[in-house]
Amino acid sequence: MTIPYGRGSSRRGPVPGTESRPGQPSRLQRTRPGARHRVASGTALYTQDVPATVIVGAQWGDEGKGKIVDLLAQDSDIVCRYQGGPNAGHTIVVGDDTFKIRALPSGIVRGKPCVIGNGCVVDPEVLIGELDDFEQRGHSTSEVYLSGNAHLIMPWHLAIDQASERRLGKLAIGTTKRGIGPAYADKAMRLGIRVQDILDAKILRQKIEVALAEKNLWLERVYESEPFDLETVAAQYEGYAQRLRPYVTDTSLYVDNALRDGKHVLFEGAQATLLDLDHGTYPFVTSSNPVASSAATGVGIGPQRIDRVIGVAKAYVTRVGEGPFPSEIEGPDQETMRELGHEYGTVTGRSRRCGWLDLVALRYAVRVNGIDQLALTKLDVLSHFAELPVCVRYRLPGGEETRDFPAHQSDFHAARPVLETLPGWSEALDDCVSEEDLPDAARRYVDLVERELGVEVTLIGTGAERTSVLTRA
Ligand code: IMP
Ligand code: MG
Q1: Average pLDDT for residues 312-324, to the nearest whole number?
Q2: What long-range pairs does 218-226 form, CB within 8 A, spacing at least 24?
Q3: Which of 53, 69, 168, 296 fits a disulfide with 172 by CB distance 3.0 to 4.6 angstroms?
Q4: pLDDT over 70 for what percent of the chain?
């Protein structure tokens, strides 16, 4: 059976967007007439010889990945999301405009072709809302490519996420309640509904019917919640389907062709290393794999295609939701940090827990992602502290100290931070245009990170604005 794809009117024949007819360039080539790669000023250094770059969160999320992607997207041809869904929230500030993005890759703000890969879960309502919003603000979405293999978040996923958190009570994970876990669980259960199912109204209805037969039982008998009505859900999703069909594409083929063509592709991680289903602080994690290697699976390219991994870490640490957090700040500095850094969730508005920079966790992130370079964001937030403790080791329950992240949860849960205190600086960083302009103490802070991790810090965030990033060669 051939899998139908929706872009274009025909459901048969070559995948729209990749066919090449004599005399007519393929859609991909039309994207950039005649050009191979456009090197813009400023960040060209970062994409020249590295066509495929993964941007990955090195902590518990909210490191400011969106802003780094936005910066590097200037010199890239395509930006892809490879996992997660609307649990993500990226904020990009452009002049007086603030873009809050949950489903689309951040590259949309730069007008770049954007891919939502097979590894993502898609809430059609959220995605359509964003597409409409961008269109209304004058940003075309004609180059948004949605993988047919991505899974759809269905209304019961949201209901189950909420009901199961409620039921867990004190043991709740503190999810974003966007249906992420239940949607990935259904994918693994082989009960999921995929984006490509929206291409055929009959198939879509059938799949909803099969899923509902089981989900309604769960909702009613286990969670004592309201069941969903088949006709209502089918009609609602058929409405979404009509809006989304034109975006459905064989994104694996699209990205692979682009890389073969010498294009520069960014893979934008959502959530982060310590929220990774396999490598994070399970069970207080998300249900996908944010780590860099997952970019290959989540888009459908070979792992050897990835040329570079940039980790994004805040100059301190935040975490939303429950779970252990060794370097969490005790005392009033926690609140000060939250206010100075505006540490409230983009998606849920929740207060983020704040901590001092944790080099043990960051060293682990360097390892499990293969981070080549680090972007250290929000250094400006630290300007207000006279002293800056940094966690350099963990003390384990037996008294033993380690520089390596504990492999077992009991050790991690009981780990206490061994802090080294660095002098702070009081100057604001607003006017810094190069590394030389940084106060000495700020430079020493960055040097310590490099020395401890053995990784270069090549980008430093000094403010919320798009331009407030120092590049270091
Ligand atoms: P879920 O991804 O909604 O299932 O939530 C699981 C855990 O991941 C919770 O602790 C969330 O707070 C956290 N989480 C999910 N997405 C993000 C994010 O984009 N930033 C920070 N934390 C996140
Ligand atoms: Mg976020």
Answers
A1: 94
A2: 218/160, 219/156, 219/159, 219/160, 219/163, 223/159, 223/160, 223/163, 223/164, 223/167, 225/159, 225/163, 226/159
A3: 168
A4: 89
